[in-house]
Model the fold of this input.
Amino acid sequence: MKLRIAIQRSGKLAEGSIALLKKCGIGFSNGTGKLRAEAEDFPLEIFFIRDDDIPDYVADSVADIGIVGENILAENPKRVEVVEKLGFGRCRLSIALSRLDKFDGLDSFNGKRIATSYPNILGRFFAERGIEADIHEISGSVEIAPSIGLADAVCDLVSSGSTLFSNGLREVETVMESQAVLIRRPGIDGETESILEQLLFRLRSVRAASQNKYILLNAPKDKAGEIARLLPGMKSPTMMPLAEEGWVSIHSVISQHDFWEVVDRLKQAGAEGILVLSIDQMIA
Ligand code: PRP
Ligand code: ZN
Done:
């Protein structure tokens, strides 16, 4: 029995999806042109497909789970369940204009033609705001539409912004934010479900690890209590005496998010020799 996962073959989510599985200790070969792989050390079969097709694969039970952008699900809802957000592949669906055109607010899109591969999301966005634009659906290379006279504006995914920039466009409005999510089909049987549970356990420990850092530092003994309070850790910080009398070494875990703020306070409190390491897995 194997769990079947569908991931993007090429594009912005492909690399992150492969990296995430590998960090979960799942080895497989993914040469170019490969459409299918069996994991070497985990009961998983991987399908490499176009991202737009992933929700269908999962809804039709061709795959049990998949990794896909929220944008794809919002455009084309399917009978799949979102298991969790994966924290990578962050991007936004935005409306962009030629750099030379001035932007007079959303109302100025009334009667204008906008090219997009996301007609449903954009249609809802305009409808909610009472704007009547002519949404022109095209499936790819949306960004060239204004320069060839096909549309007045575009609505497409932006991550670094380099595609917009190199096509002389500028972003004027965010329609939705998106990131990669794990989806599953309803009705996975018991044995496959338990493989999914194992995979989820690994995914969560990798994700928790990526959001945290391991920190170690030296502190004078009389400051140790104050410093330890800044570093709650998973349970409480570890404290060990240094060979030098009157000093301790403190080890703990700190969230990536709080890190810079806490580091300043640690230094003020008398911490020295602060080392920060990344964590591979974290199991609470
Ligand atoms: C997206 C999107 C844009 C580009 C934007 O394509 O369609 O063309 O990335 O990225 P940038 O702001 O970093 O330049 P993606 O690779 O996700 O493939 P797809 O949309 O064709 O599936
Ligand atoms: Zn795509």
